[in-house]
Amino acid sequence: GLVNTREMFAKAIKGGYAVPAFNFNNMEQLQAIIKAAAEDRSPVILQVSKGARNYANPILLRYMAQGAVEYAKSLGWENPQICLHLDHGDSYEICKDCIDHGFSSVMIDGSHLPYEENVALTKKVVEYAHQFDVTVEGELGVLAGVEDEVSSDHHTYTDPEEVIDFATRTGCDSLAISIGTSHGAYKFTPEQCTRNAEGKLVPPPLAFEVLDAVMEKLPGFPIVLHGSSSVPQEYVDMINHYGGKLPDAIGIPEEELRKAAKSAVCKINIDSDSRLAMTAAVRKVLSEKPAEFDPRKYLGPARDEMEKLYKHKIENVLGSKDKA
Ligand code: G3H
Ligand code: 13P
Ligand code: NA
Ligand code: ZN
């Protein structure tokens, strides 16, 4: 069945790689994630957000994820390492609902709350979750941009002075931190960037000194990076070429994620890149073949493109191939 993150993270820290955490909202995304993970024998975390629950229905998503384990086996993966994780849980109640209905891991995101309230809420979720061997991700620090319904104009880096107290008092199994990543396809404004010789935007570096300080305080503790899409230029260009409009979209350079994956960062969250791959492929088919109206004819190529993307992340960025 589904597994929690405990062993996945212990192995990832030892092995110097990160486990991919991919969001899914529909069947095509799920199929692409499972095919990529199965073919590459990579552990994988399937993430469901509150928005995904509202879009696709919590019951359907849960059965799809549970069915994905059987699907993975049918692809020849004998012992699939698949975790079903609630992304950005914003209340005790939503976490409990997921724990009661088969999730193997949850995130309680109290990062926008005053510190003591974040501690109390996270601790309450941990106490419930651990009775069922469900692992819990907490968060300290605030990412720039939009965290589901919680928005913040600027990020607040994680304060390394708080992490020991937070991890000890809450008992959380992993900690999401803020070091300059953010959600979505516009991670930096053009003003925050510089330009290279060809005039392309170059993002400012992540705050690796904050990550280093956190790791020094919590040696061997699993760290999570949200907002880690790279916003591949080829997809942005394809979308814009086929009638879309994504001016100055920009993500996290893969080189920085490669470096993070080698450290105690053992979960890297990617959602936007999958959305871009899907949109680029759908736009291309609909634009080149205007007579096509069978959804399989555009969602099929979109699924193939997402699988290619997931494999690229696993093989060339996170380093999780052949680790499951
Ligand atoms: O953290 C945000 C994830 O990308 C999920 O996004 O809330 O639009 O489903 P969503
Ligand atoms: P991206 O928007 O960078 O893909 O981040 C996804 C995420 O952090 C999900 O929790
Ligand atoms: Na790692
Ligand atoms: Zn996130």
From TrEMBL:
SUPFAM superfamilies: Aldolase. PANTHER family: D-TAGATOSE-1,6-BISPHOSPHATE ALDOLASE, D-TAGATOSE-1,6-BISPHOSPHATE ALDOLASE SUBUNIT GATY-RELATED. InterPro entries: Aldolase_TIM (IPR013785), Class_II_FBP_aldolase (IPR050246), FBA_II (IPR000771), Fruc_bis_ald_class-2 (IPR011289). It holds the Pfam family F_bP_aldolase. CDD domains: TBP_aldolase_IIB. The lineage of its organism: Bacteria, Pseudomonadati, Bacteroidota, Bacteroidia, Bacteroidales. Keywords: Lyase, Metal-binding, Zinc. Its cofactor is Zn(2+). This is Class II fructose-bisphosphate aldolase.
